[in-house]
Specification:
The protein is of the alpha/beta class. The chain has a single domain (about 5-225), classed as TIM Barrel. Helix content is about 45%, strand content about 15%. The chain contains twelve helices and eight strands. An eight-stranded parallel beta barrel has the order 1-2-3-4-5-6-7-8, surrounded by seven helices. Strand 1, helix 1 and strand 2 form a beta-alpha-beta unit.
């Protein structure tokens, strides 16, 4: 079971939007050196919806080669068409990733039965560990706890990223899902408390810019050291908030640019961070002790 701080990795790009492969390799090494427990590649923060199929697959292959087995690589392979999600998941397996993260089909708003059949079809088609991803604020559909329980019994479905930010919902999910089904927070602001409740880690945006602190917070919470975990989390609270002053990953990519880790590229329909937000993100970075 993968535990700890799982970074939802940004995809570095040049000013013209082309993927910056050298920066991608450096970013992976940065995370390994800083203690990040796993990489989530080509997810929401990685601008997966703007990647071509070939780019998506090349990112996964490159990550696996660069990591060389030092930490797990999780591939974002969700899509709003079941057939496309199967194709991406099969490609991820062939690339050698350790697991896949599958966001609920977005925009089409399937029923709970549709969500169940969608994820079951992918799990039956591709024999690789699969983590469900519930983020109704972006998809327009909510994968309910009862549906997660049904899917937990399907072979190859091993976990759930619950990104509602609702701790009551997290508590319910943890209570109803089997103990060997890994539930992860997908909301940095509530991740500390979620892990103290029993979540196995955090699939994190904040970890892009504060990987060592996020690793330490998650590890303390997993060890049941609530005082240490909460003390670390207090220092990250501004980041948890202000990395979302505009849609993710806009502020995160600007922060990484300020840190000298990536170039300025971001793909439409995402746009560079509005200058009116510079001060908030800068202050959040400084409060967390991040050198600029």
């Amino acid at each position: 079971m993968i535990t700890g701080s799982l970074v939802a990795l940004a995809t570095p790009m040049h000013a013209d939007g082309a993927i910056d492969w050298d920066a991608f390799a450096r970013l992976i090494e940065f995370h390994i050196a800083q203690g990040t427990d796993a990489l989530v590649v080509a997810g929401t923060t990685g601008e997966a919806s703007t990647l071509s199929f070939a780019e998506h697959c090349e990112l996964l292959r490159t990550a696996v080669v660069q990591v060389r087995g030092r930490i797990p690589v999780i591939a974002g392979t969700g899509a709003n068409a079941t057939s496309e999600a199967i194709e991406l998941t099969q490609a991820a397996k062939e690339a050698g990733v350790d697991a896949c993260l599958l966001v609920s089909p977005y925009y089409v708003k399937p029923t709970q039965e549709g969500l169940y059949r969608h994820h079951r079809a992918i799990a039956e088609a591709v024999a690789i560990p699969q983590i469900l991803y519930n983020v109704p604020g972006r998809t327009g559909v909510d994968l309910k706890p009862d549906t997660a329980v049904r899917l937990a019994s399907v072979p190859h479905i091993v976990g759930l990223k619950e990104a509602t930010g609702d701790l009551d919902r997290m508590r319910t999910v943890l209570q109803v899902c089997p103990s060997d089904f890994a539930v992860y927070s997908g909301d940095d602001a509530t991740a500390c408390e979620a892990i103290l409740m029993g979540a196995k880690g955090d699939i994190s945006v904040t970890a892009n810019v504060a990987p060592a602190a996020m690793h330490a917070m998650c590890r303390a919470a997993l060890d049941g050291d609530a005082d240490t975990a909460r003390a670390i989390d207090v220092g990250l609270a501004r980041l948890h908030r202000d990395l979302f002053v505009e849609s993710n990953p806009i502020p995160t990519k600007w922060a990484l640019l300020r840190m000298g880790l990536i170039g300025p590229g971001i793909r439409l329909p995402m746009t560079p961070l509005d200058p009116s937000c510079y001060a908030a993100v800068t202050e959040a970075l400084e409060q967390a002790g991040i050198a600029l």
